[in-house]
Amino acid sequence: MQQLLSPTISYPSPLFHLTSHPFPPKPHFCPTHRLSFYPPPKIASFSGFFAKSQMGMTAAAAAGDGANGFSSLMDYVGKGGLDVGDDLLVLLYHIQFACKRIAALVASPFNSALGKHSALTGASSGAAASDRDKPKPLDIVANEIILSSLRNSGKVSVMASEEDDAPIWINDDGPFVVVLDPLDGSRNIDASIPTGTIFGVYNRLTELDNQPTEEKALLNSLQSGRKLVAAGYVLYSSATILCASFGSGTHAFTLDHSTGDFILTHPSIRIPPRGQIYSVNDARYFDWPEGLRQYIDTVRQGKGKFPKKYSARYICSLVADFHRTVLYGGIAMNPRDHLRLVYEANPLSYLAEQAGGKGSDGKSRILSIQPVKLHQRLPLFLGSLEDIDELESYGDVQQKVNPGYEV
Length: 407
Description:
Keywords: Carbohydrate metabolism, Hydrolase. Belongs to the FBPase class 1 family. This protein starts with about 60 loop residues before the first helix and ends in a 15-residue tail after the last helix. The protein has 10 helices and 13 strands. The strands form 2 sheets. An 8-stranded mixed β-sheet has the order 2-1-3-4-5-6-7-8, with helices on both faces. The chain has a 5-stranded mixed β-sheet with strand order 10-9-11-13-12, with helices on both faces. The chain is an alpha+beta fold.
């Protein structure tokens, strides 16, 4: 019987070769020592930085006018674009470096190992509230990553974080103050729900330099949102997106994992003056004040000033809900005294206004509110200008009744 021979098929050599270990070793976390991270290289100035093409880009691509027309975050904000100045550019470099590390940590299959270390879970936080608001291990690690990068930048005098009871004085000569929520939405991270980092940047108040360290650190952190010189958020989702404003519009950059660069994908974002989406936890409807219930009932029936029926979209992740609202319009809201003025409301309201939208507490413009406490909470309504104005016209929209939610 004749034997049938299969044709010989040759395959190209693989680009990557497996080692003898099919899985990487589990990372080791030592809770008895301060967490340390690989810092980015110190960059004192960006003069000549782009000419040398140190980010692996050609001169044409670095100028943003190459064949593909793409521009990286550092190019767009640098001398070839907005030209925010060397100091702010250096700071931004270190912030985006830290956020890339956080993005990798969030996506790691080993991040659940952090929860096994009680020394981390017992850390202090400014949110002295229920178990729901206690910092999660990933929040603390993200906080340490950003603190390490800010120290290394040499451009930050004080960092105020949602995860710390008090501001941290870093450098007497740093020209900037950074306020931040290092990892918002982390309580849902096990379900792969999007999370984010929120940050705001102020100039250091030099008139306070002769004050005691604790006092000047606190007062620098309690600046009005109107004094922000930059703000942004990073969304960790199907894509990692950094959305920022430096006082000249709101722009979004998407992380290209093949090069490690944030690439400009949404220049000069404009929030539609009207949206057709509201984002709020409808399960709390019966705890809402009458004005808020009337507003929601009206717009979802299409009987408001915008004669279309609104749809509900609620992720329960502030950065994700706000990001969708920035792109599509409408309102993202939490009517309770829950979100923090310094770390969340001010930076996001700054971004909303720079995109033609509005941030409100239901009665007043967020950026007009003077913080009096570091972890001050308030209701927050963000989104389309006309939608926010219509909501405020109902008067009673702030929920003061809080039965104590555990989920």
